Amino acid sequence: MTNTTAAPVRGLRDLPDFADVSRLIALMTGAEKHAPAAHSTTDALWVLYNRVLRVTPATVDDPGRDRFLLSKGHGPMAYYAVLAAHGFFDEEVLRGFGTYASPLGHHPDRLLVPGAEIGSGSLGHGLPLAVGTVLGLRAQGLTDPRVWVLVGDAELDEGSNHEAIAHAGPAGLEQLHTLVIDNASATHGWPGGIASRFAAAGWSAATVDGRDHEALYAAFTAPHPGRPRAVVARVEPKS
Q1: What is the DSSP code string of 75-114?
Q2: Stretch 135-159: mean pLDDT, rounded?
Q3: Helix, strand or coil, per DSSP, at residue 68
Q4: How many CB atoms neighbour CB 222 within 10 A?
Q5: Phi/psi of residue 222, each to 5°?
Q6: pLDDT by residue (tens digit) across 5-51?
Q7: Reduced to 3 states, what is the DSSP secondary structure of residue 232?
Q8: How far apart are CA 130 and CA 23, in angstroms?
Q9: 3-state secondary structure (DSSP) of residue 149
Q10: Is beta strand 147-152 parallel, antiparallel or unpaired with respect to 229-234?
Q11: How far is the C-alpha of 79 from the C-alpha of 234, rounded, in Å?
């Protein structure tokens, strides 16, 4: 298995900088009605790709790579900016966002976007797909790769997510990590908070400030032997 923990060698000027993400997002223009959905994910995506995920442009086809699934695919601008910042494609591609000839659509397409694991945007699909991905890796004897899925709090109203949560805990899917971006847009909510929903199903769960990079990193890397992990990242309410 190829070691996916080693980052590519870069010069100091090539190191990605979070301060550059806003500029990269600004390159994407047009009638994008889901801008709040994109900006709510910016910090969490940055911490994942910059400090946690074991995948690089050179290892996107390595069976031993970590997988990241963007279920909240209806606002992918921050996702595209973070991928570009980390070298998955040239930042000039961002300028064509949403146009007919661009690979960067208003919902990401896994066949067109370098580094994308799934096509997404229809809510409620990503977490079940992540559960299936972990089960598929297990069937192949690949127990080291970690699977991450980013969902929105409103997605958790979908029954498909309820079933995935209910299955993953008792199945002990330790490779599975769910990141919930909580911008207070859910219709129903959950008594005791979103993290309690996962904990009740046997998950390891934590709630953190979704703009605090150190808190996000600590939550993302906390040990959770024998259990899937859920991190709820609270950001400002959707306006």
Answers
A1: S-HHHHHHHHHTTSS-GGGGGGTTSTT-S--SS--TTTST
A2: 95
A3: strand
A4: 11
A5: -65, 140
A6: 333 333 333 567 898 999 999 999 866 656 777 789 999 999 999 99
A7: strand
A8: 31
A9: strand
A10: unpaired
A11: 18
Higher pLDDT, 82 or 13: 82
Kindly state the percentage of the chain with pLDDT values over 70.
Answer: 91
Q: pLDDT (tens digit, 9 = 90+) per residue, 178-224?
A: 999 999 888 777 788 999 999 999 999 999 999 999 999 999 999 99
Residues β-bridged to residue 149: 69, 178
Which residue shows structure tokens 């900016």? Answer: 81
The position carrying tokens 């409103």 is 154
Tokens of 208: 């953190």
- Four-residue CA torsion sign, 138, 217, 150, 231: positive
Q: How many residues does the chain have?
A: 239
Both tokens of residue 119? Answer: 């096509």
Closest-CA residue to 42 (of 239, 238, 235, 237): 235
Cα–Cα dist 238/111, whole Å: 30
Tell me how far the alpha carbon of residue 218 is from its chain's centroid. 16
Name the H helices within 55-212. 77-85, 126-139, 159-171, 194-200
Say which amino acid occupies 238.
Answer: K
